[in-house]
Amino acid sequence: MADLTGTLCRCWRLTCSDGRVFAFTDHDARLSFDGADFSPSDAMTARALEQTTGLSVDNSEAIGALSAAGLTEEDILAGRFDSAAVEIWQVNWSDLSDRRLSFRGTLGEIERAGGAFKAELRGLTEQLNRPVGRLYQKQCAARFGDATCGMNADIYAVDVVVSRIEGAMIEVTAGTAPAEHYAFGTLRVLDGAASGQVVHVRGDRAADGARSLTLWDSVRGLAIGDRVKLIAGCDKRAATCREKFGNMLNFRGFPHLPTEDWVTAYPSGGAS
Question: Which part of the chain is the Bacteriophage phiJL001 Gp84 C-terminal domain (predicted)?
């Protein structure tokens, strides 16, 4: 790009996993290019972008105001912006063909406070930090219901209605599953203000036709009468895979690995 100090602006485009696209610019008029309309907004800014050659991870932070750019706290809590694709352009607003893509990556950890948010921007080389290959451990490495697990999670799911809420503890109209059946499982909100939010279940007690669930975190916006989907939990142990799900052929752990005591053991001179 030429020296465009007086006509240079920045354009942002966020693409969520559900397909929704948010596009805005710090220019004072709407700009359109690359199949998107960038609306004027000062809701998002970025700190200095750290970019390096080689395979080092490019990163920065995006800071902005909630709702001003269509970003709401409810959507963030529901995880709708988790790993959203991000593109940042430097654009000559007097000649839109004169533009440069300065960053492409994903949103990382998002913090919320006082009607604003701060999100980590992760470059494309962040993907290289992901572990590849098998991890040798006693517990199963698969996620319940994924391709390596091979189980159909929907078979072990039930839709219930919330009848009581006390912080991270909720009570639902229980199914017929035994106690602790949904411990280590997931809860997805199906309707209401919290629709779409997914949380993990820490504990599950069933008694007198009701089921009491302890969640790892409270669900903001959840109300009595909302429908939720419960998916059975798996604690990754071989016994659970065999007895609860009958899926031992697909168990992705190594239950017979020797313990650390066995590995560090040595012969004793006094043994007979």
Answer: 181-261
